[in-house]
Write a structure and sequence with these properties.
The chain has helices at residues 42-45, 50-55, 61-64, 71-74, 96-102, 121-134, 147-159, 174-182, 194-208, 218-224, 226-234, 251-265, 285-292, 317-326, 336-348, 355-369, 391-398, 420-428, and strands at 6-10, 16-18, 32-36, 92-93, 106-111, 139-143, 162-168, 186-190, 211-212, 242-246, 274-280, 330-334, 378-383. By secondary structure, the chain is of the alpha/beta class. Bound molecules: ligand F0G.
């Protein structure tokens, strides 16, 4: 790789590493982050956000991408190095139904399920796969609860490199498994949970010179930051009061917070919105650490029907927790019942999202009910994945067969006799 205007810095100690070095962790074991030299981009950044607004009108993929449009803030690779679909450009929805359900009159939802592979992971993945190729790797790998692997598989296929997926056997949603297989990734089902698959893939990548593209990889975080950049752009660069998102491995919240801090560092923001991370109650190690003001204690066994966030030992907990504490942010937890009822409402509003995404809406509802968020505050929630990612759980809910939850808003299919009279009898019911 040619010389780059950034370095990798440890989040815990003073050690720094050159951008050209292949590293995911510091020698001390802590995670790394990309540190930018803004002076190399000062002239452009001094022009303010209008530069990025103009790029929205361009026909070039690199400008149309909701990640690379912000390349001077994300990662200044050369255009020829970028592997993009392009991604981003996701919609921001308002819904009277969801305003009434949550009690948040100013709620809008950015639907990251509208990315090319149906989840927010494409934003980080376009950067990680571009860097993998720039570093000369022909093989990439990740552990996943399904969305990271779907995204990696698609971008690796586009780049013409091999992809290896490590998934917890029988524990990921079918739509996601289908994507991994269809895009041609070698898919390895591990007898164990996500946390075990994560540990294993890190070992395999180190032993076998395969590039690791989990959010442990600091470049994934740089791309993921663009979620916040595009959200602010959608809002005309005016800050909301709150940004609310689900938390699993905690890459997304770490990235969002890093992006916001950097906007303040370069002088574009003088205050920051409050960020609320919502965890499933059965997979809540950040919630516990936040409320007890302790280091994170991994869960031996995470349990939630929202399989995307069924994670007991999140890799990026320290980055996320530090950012939340520094911004007056918070962590809330919601039950599977709350998640699936919120999902039924998001779906019935005509928006639709996968279960983990709807922890966001369940969380907003709970935070309004407790008085933490005021009904008149401007709240932006992130929906992280597409409705079709997990059709099995959606159908189970509407048929009242989802384990351990009551289907409060069920819309089950009905049977009617195959005749005009039979159907009309049913319609009149
Ligand atoms: N929502 C969805 C739909 C996800 O797929 C994930 C994570 C999250 C929320 C949580 O985001 O990990 O950045 O805190 N999915 C990962 C995966 C773990 O492998 O696809 P996070």
């Amino acid at each position: 790789m040619p010389h780059r205007p950034w370095i990798l810095g440890c989040i815990d100690c003073e050690r720094r590493y050159a951008a050209e070095e292949v590293r995911y962790r510091c020698e001390c074991g802590a995670t790394l982050e990309v540190r930018h030299d803004w002076t190399t981009r000062r002239a452009l950044l001094d022009l303010g956000p209008s530069v990025f607004d103009q790029r929205r009108l361009s026909r070039e993929a690199i400008d149309r991408s909701g990640v690379w449009r912000f390349r001077e803030l994300v990662l200044p690779l050369a255009g020829s190095e970028v592997i993009t679909k392009p991604e981003g450009n996701t919609n921001l929805y308002c819904s009277d139904r969801l305003a009434a359900y949550t009690g948040s009159a100013g709620l809008s939802l950015k639907h990251e399920g509208e990315n090319p592979t149906g989840s927010f992971k494409d934003r980080g993945m376009t950067v990680a796969i571009s860097v993998a190729c720039a570093l000369g790797f022909a093989r990439v790998a990740c552990a996943s609860t399904g969305n990271t692997s779907a995204s990696m598989a698609a971008y690796a296929a586009q780049a013409g490199i091999e992809a290896y997926v490590f998934i917890p056997e029988g524990k990921i949603a079918y739509g996601k498994l289908a994507q991994s297989l269809a895009y041609g990734a070698r898919t390895i089902q591990i007898e164990g949970d996500f946390d075990l698959a994560m540990k294993l893939v890190e070992e395999v990548c180190r032993a076998d010179s395969i590039y690791l593209v989990n959010s442990l990889n600091p470049y994934r975080i740089e791309g993921q930051k663009a979620i916040g950049l595009e959200l602010l752009q959608d809002l005309g660069w005016r800050l909301p009061d709150w940004i609310v998102l689900p938390g699993g491995n905690l890459g997304n919240s770490s990235a969002l917070l890093k992006g916001l801090f950097e906007l303040r560092e370069i002088g574009w923001l003088d205050r920051l919105p409050r960020v609320a991370v919502i965890q499933a109650a059965g997979a809540n190690p950040l919630y516990t650490a936040f409320h007890n003001r302790t280091t994170l204690q991994p869960l031996a066994q995470a349990e939630t029907l929202a399989t995307a966030i069924k994670i007991g030992n999140p890799v990026s907990w320290k980055k996320s927790l530090r950012g939340l504490l520094a911004t007056h942010g918070l962590v809330e937890q919601v039950s599977d019942q709350e998640i699936l009822d919120a999902k039924a409402q998001v779906d019935a509003a005509g928006i639709g999202a996968e279960p983990a995404s709807c922890a966001t809406v369940a969380g907003v509802r709970k935070l309004i009910a407790s008085g933490t968020i005021r009904p008149d505050e401007r709240v932006c929630g992130i929906l992280t994945g597409h409705l079709l990612k997990d059709p099995d759980l959606t159908i189970a809910y509407h048929q009242s067969t989802a384990l351990g939850v009551t289907s409060n808003f069920a819309n089950p299919p009905v049977r009617a006799e195959a005749s005009l009279a039979g159907v009309r009898r049913w319609l009149r019911r």
